[in-house]
Amino acid sequence: MTSPVSSQVRVIVSGGVQHGVMVRRARGEGGGPGRAGVRGARRPEVRLPPLDPYRDGGLEPDGDYDGLEFREEDLSGQDGGGARFMDCALRGCALDETRLPHARILDSVLTGLRGVGTDLAESTLRDVELVDARLGGVQLHGAVLERVLVRGGKIDYLNLRKARLRDVVFEGCVLVEPDFGGARLERVEFVDCVLKGADLSGVTLSDVDLRKAAELDIARGVDRLAGAVISPAQLLDLAPVLAAEMGVRVEAAE
Fold this sequence. Notes:
This is Pentapeptide repeat protein. This protein has one helix at residues 232-246, and strands at 8-13, 21-26, 52-53, 64-66, 68-71, 84-86, 89-91, 104-111, 114-116, 124-136, 144-156, 164-171, 174-176, 184-191, 194-199, 204-209, 215-220, 228-229. The protein is mainly beta. The strands form 2 sheets. The chain has a 16-stranded parallel β-sheet that branches. Strand 1 and strand 2 form a beta hairpin.
């Protein structure tokens, strides 16, 4: 019989699952004692000033964009490497093959973005809301994300290898084969979102809350779950993979 819905477990892995998994049942709900050991993510609080419409027609490397609204702009194939976006709103823009490596996106709202192959490698996103995006193959390897909310939409093949995520919330979105290889996640929450084929190889987790994920499918790196918190149902779903990592054979008695 499974545990009641209100109960929670915390999985603490010391030195990888090959050294054992400890399951601790938490007490209480909400802000009670059961949550004392899990620090929640701080969400961004973006308050945009009155914005001017963007009329320049094209991005420029190392460009400086402050207090602008990009509405339904086709930025496909453009090069804005090293650009800074401050107090901006990008709404319904196309970002196919747009180059934004080393960009800084600060105190901004990105809504309804669409595109394939957007390059945001080694960029910085701080106090950003990304809402209802439809993206594929986004390159965010080596990026820094701090106080970022990703809400709704679908992102395929998100590359966050060796990125640093702090105070990041994925909410109500679908992530297909996200790659967190070698990344560092601190105070990251997955709420009502779907993770399919996630790669956690070499990842470092601290206060990562997976309990409210609608679907949790880990393709690689289940041995790196130290620092993550999961639900009883997720523990049961992951049991075969955890057993395989620990070298445990599970067979019915004859």
